[in-house]
Design brief:
Lysozyme, single chain, mainly alpha, 65% helix
């Protein structure tokens, strides 16, 4: 009988540890602005993975290159997307989380439409549309002009892996 109680106690402790681990993981993988993300038409796990990789959910983040906010948008890129969508651009609102996420989702949608391969679009989010277009024209990086078999920038190569890993974690935790 003592053995049964010990087994029950161990199993209960394991369940508690697993539940606490899941709670901790979900706090590390938050999902802000769910309504905007869901309205975007993009897979939420992809958007949140980009947000986590770009700013780790810091609305006030500024990169050394000048990208700002949750989704680390360059002001020129955000302005381009707004013009393309027929929206008035408000540069002063790029630190507003809802505005930044809305523009970031529009930009990612644009990149997914522009590049037929999702992995290539993710690389373009990091390295820039022009840079990735150049890579696609180089047989050293692309054999078909559509997909990258080699990502020449270490930062972009690591970024693409990070986004894919974060995405898998979001899919595991929330789907």
């Amino acid at each position: 009988m003592k053995h049964v109680y010990r087994t029950i106690l161990i199993l209960t402790a394991c369940v508690i540890v697993m539940a606490l681990s899941l709670i901790f993981l979900k706090s590390e993988y938050s999902r802000p602005y769910q309504e905007i993300v869901c309205r975007s038409g993009l897979e939420p796990a992809l958007v949140y993975a980009i947000m986590k990789a770009e700013s780790n959910f810091n609305e006030n983040a500024v990169s050394k290159s000048g990208a700002v906010g949750l989704m680390q948008l360059m002001p020129s890129t955000a302005e381009f997307i707004c013009r393309k969508q027929g929206l008035v651009f408000h540069g002063e609102k790029l630190f507003d989380g809802a505005y930044n996420v809305m523009i970031g989702c529009m930009y990612m949608t644009y990149l997914l439409d522009r590049f037929s391969d999702e992995r290539t679009a993710i690389c373009a989010y990091n390295a820039g549309e022009g840079t990735v277009s150049d890579w696609l024209q180089n047989p050293q990086y692309s054999s078909d002009g559509l997909t990258l078999h080699t990502i020449p920038y270490t930062e972009t190569r690591n970024y693409e892996k990070k986004v894919c890993n974060f995405r898998k974690n979001y899919q595991f935790l929330y789907q």
